[in-house]
Amino acid sequence: MSNITSETIKNSLRHIIDRDSGADVVSSGLISGIVVRAGEAGAKVGFVITIDPKDKDGKAYLRKACEDQVRLLAGVESVTAVLTAQNSEPIPPKPESGYAQPRERAVWNVTPVEGVKKVIAVASGKGGVGKSTTAVNLALALTQKGLRVGLLDADIYGPSLPRMLGLTEHSGKPPAIVDGKMIPPVNHGIQCMSMGFITGEEAAILRGPMISKTLHQLLRFSRWDNVDVLLVDMPPGTGDIHLSMVQQVPLAGAVIVTTPQEVALMDARKALKMFEKVGVAVLGVVENMSYFTDAAGNSIPLFGEGGGQRLADEMDVPFLGNVPIDMAIREASDNGTFYKGMCAVSYKQISERLLAAVR
Ligand SMILES: Nc1ncnc2c1ncn2[C@@H]1O[C@H](COP(=O)(O)OP(=O)(O)O)[C@@H](O)[C@H]1O
Ligand SMILES: [Mg+2]
């Protein structure tokens, strides 16, 4: 049994001096989140070093110095320090808005995700507007363009990607672990990671802080294989969980999915403002279920017209396009098959505009 505790770690880190302040990293309050887990050959230690975002490069030495220092302790098997940046701009509270206010200044995890070039969140205010469907079909459209694509199901309470991607044979069967990382199951060329592989389709019962830890693990303890774009299917809403998630994931931007009716737009607006507020670029708005085409070929705008475009104009972000209602979309997502119907062209256009917005 190793006798390493977080106190032992702290005491050893007191020897590391932050060159700027001249004080040790512990007294300067740079160290947090120390975890000590029992490993086969000793303790596995992890902790967070918080820095100012503008010191991102200048402070890289601290990570190495801290890791090396802790590694010297007898009984330590491995050490991982994560450098996160403290947002130096305090975010002004806007009490009139309905979304969650950060309780403290945001702490950003600026470390890139191994094996991933760009991470894009697919979000909405409301559930049931087709966020997961959009994420899956954009992922398919991007693979069609020759990109390597990953999908992360961050809807931990209601994971739907294993089914939508035709990966139900992996549901409830935790992915293989190689060198400490989970191998994402693949279908239609898309690498996927979801809580559903671990819990099955039953919703996980987790408290807030565990949610963000779980997301962190799904994101960072997966072996993404050379992924150009990782789409994150976010859970609906704009609560604390979202805030902590957007802080953990180094996002290239977010896509907001909405349906055209006013109630959905209101929530989409909140989601959009939340991203803007935390400094994540909104890459654009997708309007889903825009209209239905009847047997005679007439377009029937079931939920009203032009809502997505209006929201984009109002918030001064790109409108990426709309996707009509097609029964075949629902069938494909229920069966996990590759949707090739009439809306495929919409997804293609949206994915092209998305790529243009992210560059
Ligand atoms: N454009 C569309 N046409 C037809 N059905 C759709 C369309 N978009 C989504 N759906 C269906 O609507 C339901 C909700 O979509 P889903 O992607 O699960 O929403 P969310 O992830 O926002 O909760 C699913 O059954 C899905 O197949
Ligand atoms: Mg969903």
Distance between the termini: 51 Å
Structural class: alpha/beta
| Biggest sheet details | 9 strands, mixed
| Sequence of secondary-structure elements | HEEHEEEHEHEEEEHHEHEHEEHEHH
**Ligand species:** adenosine-5'-diphosphate, magnesium ion
The tally of domains stands at 2
Task: Give the total of beta strands.
Answer: 15
Shape: elongated
CATH topology of the largest domain: Rossmann fold
The CATH superfamily of the largest domain is known as P-loop containing nucleotide triphosphate hydrolases
Number of helices in the DSSP assignment? 11
Which residues form runs of ≥5 with pLDDT under 50? 87-107
Please state the average pLDDT score. Answer: 85
Classify the helix fraction into a percent range: 25-40%
Structural commentary:
It is a single chain. With 359 residues, this protein is of the alpha/beta class. It folds into 2 domains: 81 residues, GMP Synthetase, Chain A, domain 3 (2-Layer Sandwich), CATH 3.30.300; 247 residues, Rossmann fold, CATH 3.40.50.300. It is built from 11 helices and 15 strands. Strands 5, 6, 9, 10, 11, 12, 13, 14 and 15 form a 9-stranded mixed sheet that branches. A 4-stranded mixed sheet has the order 1-2-3-4, sandwiched between helices. Strands 7-8 form a two-stranded antiparallel sheet. It is elongated and about 75 Å long. The termini are far apart. 41% of the residues are buried. About 6% of the residues have low confidence. It binds adenosine-5'-diphosphate and magnesium ion. The site of adenosine-5'-diphosphate has 17 residues, from α3, β13, β15 and α10.
